Amino acid sequence: xxxxxxxxxxxxxYEAGTCAGAEESSLAAELLMAIERDEITLVFQPxxxxxxxxxxxxxxxxxxxxxxxxxxxPSTFVPLAEExxxxxxxxxxxxxxxxxxxxxxxxxxxxVAVSVNLSAQLVxxxxxxxxxEELLRERGLTGDALILEIxxxxxxxxxxVARDVLQDxxxxxxxxxxDDFGSGYASxxxxxxxxxxxxxxxxxxxxxxxxxxxxxxxxxxxLGKVLDLYVVAEGIENESGLDALRSLGADVVQGYHLARPxxxxxIRQTLLEHAAAVDAxxxxxR
Length: 286
Ligand code: C2E
Ligand code: MG
Ligand code: MG
Ligand code: MG
Description:
12 helices; Diguanylate cyclase (GGDEF) domain-containing protein; 286 residues; alpha/beta; binds magnesium ion; eight-stranded mixed beta barrel; binds ligand C2E
């Protein structure tokens, strides 16, 4: 399915190139090549349950190193992919790799899910639930192995279609999280209109120590709880941040203070060591 689509997507890159700047169009052509050659890689950042201390989820984050060795950040190439019609193949690639990894973790006996960022464009793409179902089935995985983080809901084309898409995904037992919650992108309207399982509080809010910022943070966590959603806090950078989020009632925490994003081999080792350490502390034997 992916192969058959390549030609069309190649053309859309070319067409975008005729109106965009030359530099951008050559970067888009490089991105297409990187996707085709499977050169986009993933790094993985753990998320830890506050109560048990266990790593319950690992977020997959895309990385692209150009042929000349310069890294392009996802904040550049994800919007570029959206603009030139490459977001679907990019997402297929990241989901495929993320699910390959979670399969390996689960085979090692780890009860961990992988979390993938889903571009707003794809939240209203009716082909996405079928695609996810197929990728799960190919690996013998159930939907509880996958979380999809959605953001910038202002950019979602049709709320009605988005609601259907997300409902179909949840019917597969895939969980949906609203990412960057409290950053201004994720509006209250989204909370009302879109089916969600959790919210992920934006790191800027987590790290805003002004009285106003703290009030906002507290309110956002309470709002999530009132709506019966679980609350993840991203961007925890120090012990005091961890203490604060714990006492405010976050369910899950993530950030450099706990662990940085790491390559696949490293995350596997980290997950095994961490699970063994928690088992030892709590007297669990496997
Ligand atoms: P995000 O999903 O909100 O991911 C969190 C970003 O914060 C990541 O940056 C992560 O490396 C960084 N981070 C994690 N902990 C800390 C911390 O304690 N302090 C600070 N200062 N930063 C922290 P990254 O990997 O550069 O990703 C940036 C954004 O790009 C992501 O934000 C996400 O929206 C997007 N992105 C990344 N990978 C993908 C992808 O595969 N698909 C899509 N659609 N978007 C992606
Ligand atoms: Mg995210
Ligand atoms: Mg986030
Ligand atoms: Mg963020």
